Structures are given as C-alpha cells and as structure tokens.
C-alpha cells in the first residue's frame, strides 16, 4: 500500500530539476548581458537590489544590502566599492542622517537597468499565462525554501 510519499519523490526530483534549470537560465541571461563575467554573484544580487530600490524612489543604505545578503560589513563594503568603481552605483548623502549614505544608480547603470527591466517584463509575461492557483502554489514553495534557508542560516 502506497502512503503517497512514494509518489512525491519523483515529483520532488522534477521540481528540483526545474528549479535548477530556471536558476541556470536566469544566470545565462545575465551572462549574455555581459554582467556576470565581470561581477560576482553577490555583487549581481546587490546591484539588482540597489537598482530596483532606486527605480522605486527608495534608495537603500549599505546596511540594507548587508542584511539582505547576510554578509559582513567588510564584504558589503567591498561589493559596494566595486560597484561604485564600475560606476554602476554611487553613494549619496542620506538627508535623514548626515553620517550615512544612500546607494543609487550610477552613470553606467542605465544599460543594466534596461536589462533588468526586460528580464522582469519577460518574467511577468511568462507568469501571466499561468493559472493563479499554480502561482500561489509556486509562491508557497519558494517562500518555504527561503524560510528553511533563513532558519539554517540562523542555526549556523
């Protein structure tokens, strides 16, 4: 008699394979844009966060990047310094706190911002074809994966 777990194993393997294939395809998009070859994965994540926040009119402080990426202050500083050096990001004084800086799009950022916008538009077009109940399931699974990862990070 099957408990249902036997049937879930092949589904879990298919889901994992699909997730890994998606992640690789996403990285390929960035490689084609010529960005990944020049930036580390953490730098790409930081840049994406900074550009999206700036486009929304809500520039980030460096500590926000550090918290989101779960890296040290020194690691965050190195990433931001690299992005500033490439003119992808610039630091600007925080009007709310003269000791702090906000991170905003730099002179070289428009190309990256356009690539990011196209990527987001393609993703939205793709998911627009997916039934809502499937999207809710996907969000549930991805949230669960994120929460487990966060828990493991806290436990380390």
TrEMBL record:
Which superkingdom does the taxonomy of this entry point to?
Bacteria
What region holds the HTH marR-type domain?
A: 32-135
For molecular function, the Gene Ontology terms on record are:
DNA-binding transcription factor activity
Tell me which InterPro entries the record gives.
HTH_MarR-typ (IPR000835), WH-like_DNA-bd_sf (IPR036388), WH_DNA-bd_sf (IPR036390)
Q: Which SMART domains match?
A: HTH_MARR
SUPFAM superfamilies in UniProt: Winged helix' DNA-binding domain (SSF46785)
This protein's name: HTH marR-type domain-containing protein
What is this organism's lineage? Bacteria, Bacillati, Actinomycetota, Actinomycetes, Micrococcales
């Amino acid at each position: 008699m099957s408990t249902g777990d036997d049937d879930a194993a092949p589904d879990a393997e298919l889901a994992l394979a699909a997730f890994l294939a998606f992640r690789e395809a996403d990285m390929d998009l960035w490689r084609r844009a010529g960005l990944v070859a020049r930036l580390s994965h953490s730098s790409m994540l930081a840049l994406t966060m900074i550009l999206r926040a700036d486009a929304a009119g809500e520039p980030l402080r460096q500590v926000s990047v550090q918290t989101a990426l779960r890296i040290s202050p020194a690691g965050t500083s190195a990433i931001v310094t690299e992005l500033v050096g490439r003119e992808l990001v610039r630091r600007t004084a925080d009007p709310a706190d003269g000791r702090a800086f906000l991170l905003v799009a730099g002179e070289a950022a428009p190309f990256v911002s356009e690539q990011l916008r196209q990527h987001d538009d393609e993703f939205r077009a793709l998911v627009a074809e997916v039934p809502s109940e499937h999207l809710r399931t996907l969000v549930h699974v991805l949230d669960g994966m994120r929460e487990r990862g966060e828990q493991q990070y806290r436990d380390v």
